[in-house]
Design a protein that fits this description.
It contains two helices and seven strands; from the N terminus they run βαββββββα. With about 130 residues, it is α+β, with helices and mostly antiparallel strands. It has one domain: 2-Layer Sandwich (Alpha-D-Glucose-1,6-Bisphosphate, Chain A, domain 4), CATH 3.30.530. A seven-stranded antiparallel sheet has the order 1-7-6-5-4-3-2.
Length: about 130
């Protein structure tokens, strides 16, 4: 299983950043690889920038921990996947840590850059 992690600090209160991250259906507003997105309480459906579908199960959307977790369930040939976004109040700004565990390991080469762009997109979106 490949493990990826990236992070950034955002010059906005953690409550504001959490409002963006926890709005699962709005990921297309800040994650460049996602063209469109919709969500229910337990699932998210996306269309990627290249037109491919991506289906996800929402595992955790916890406002107390400010933790959002999801699993890819369709649209990519994954054996297992868990993505986690933690929004942490540092007192002066917000630390966002985005980690992913994925099998097969070969998908890490594709997901890694997309996740880094997503974290940067979140920062730009929240600070705009």
């Amino acid at each position: 299983m490949a493990t990826l992690r990236t992070h950034t600090t955002i010059d906005r209160p953690a409550t504001e950043v959490w409002d963006v991250v926890s709005d699962a259906g709005n990921i297309s507003a800040w994650f460049p690889a996602v063209k469109t997105s919709t969500a229910t309480d337990d699932a998210r459906d996306c269309e990627l920038a290249d037109g491919s579908p991506l289906n996800e199960e929402i595992v955790t959307n916890d406002p107390e921990l400010r933790r959002f977790q999801y699993r890819i369930t369709g649209g990519m040939p994954v054996e297992s996947h868990l993505g986690t976004v933690d929004v942490i109040d540092t007192g002066t700004n917000t630390l966002v840590v985005y980690s992913t565990e994925i099998t097969p390991d070969s998908l890490a080469d594709m997901l890694g850059p997309a996740i880094e762009e997503g974290v940067q997109g979140l920062k730009e979106y929240c600070e705009a």
